[in-house]
Amino acid sequence: MPDVRCTNCKEVFEIDSLEISANYDCPHCGKNIKFTSELDRWVKKVYQNQIEPDFLLLKSRSSDALVGIVIGMGIVLFGLVMLYAWMFIFTIPAGLFCLWWGFSCMFTESTIREVFSVYDKEKSRNIVFVYENGELVESSQHEIIVEERCRIVCYSFWEGGGDTGSTVWMTYITQKTGAIRLVCDGFSKAKQFADYLGITYDSKGSHGKLNSLPDDSHTWTEW
Questions:
Q1: Could you read off the pLDDT of 195-220 as tens digits, one per residue?
Q2: Are strands 32-35 and 200-209 parallel, antiparallel or unpaired?
Q3: 58 beta partners
Q4: Are 124 and 150 in contact (CB under 8 A)?
Q5: 127, 182 contact by CB (below 8 A)
Q6: Where are the domains of the chain?
Q7: For a disulfide at 102, which of 56, 70, 76, 113, Cβ 3.0-4.6 Å?
Q8: Are 201 and 191 in contact (CB under 8 A)?
C-alpha cells in the first residue's frame, strides 16, 4: 500500500489508495488527516478557475429549491384544510403540525448541484465531477486514446412516460478496449469535440424510446 506523510507529526503511514480521497487517523499522533487524490486536486483547481480545461463538454447547474417550495405549499394547504375542520379536535394539532412541516420544507436550504465534464489534453482523459453547495461530492476519469479510427457516436431517446419523461443523450467515443461514454451537452457539443480531436463524428439521430432503437444499435460503438 502507498505511504503518505502526516501533516501534523510528519511521520509516514500507509493508506489504501492514492486514487481515492479519504480521511485517515494517523497511527502515530492520532490526528485525523484528509488525503486528497491528484485527480481531486486538479478538479478543485478547475472549479476555482485556476486551471482552464482544454475542452468543456458539459457545465450544468440545478437547484431543488423549487421542489421544496412546491411540496411545502402543498403541505401548508393541507394543514389549513385540517384547521378549517376544527370540529374534529384531533385535526387541530395535525393541522398545526402540517403548517410547521410545510414552512420548514419551503425555507430549508436548497441544494445547488453543479455537474462538469471536461477533457484534459495533457493526460488525454475525460473527467466528470459534481459539486453540491460548493463541495466536491463525486469525481471520475477515463483515459482516452485518440487514434485515427476513433469516432464519436451520438444518439438520443425519450425515457419515461408522457410529460414526466425526458430526453436521454448518449455520447460515446470508440476505443480498442471498448467504447467510453462521455457526459456531453447534446449533439452540437459532441460534434465540436470530435472536430477538436480530429476524429469522425457519427450522429445516429433521435429515437422515440429506448425500446424503439434499431436492432443493430449495439453495433454503433464497435471498434
A1: 999 999 999 999 988 888 999 999 99
A2: unpaired
A3: 117
A4: no
A5: no
A6: 56-61+115-219, 65-107
A7: 76
A8: yes
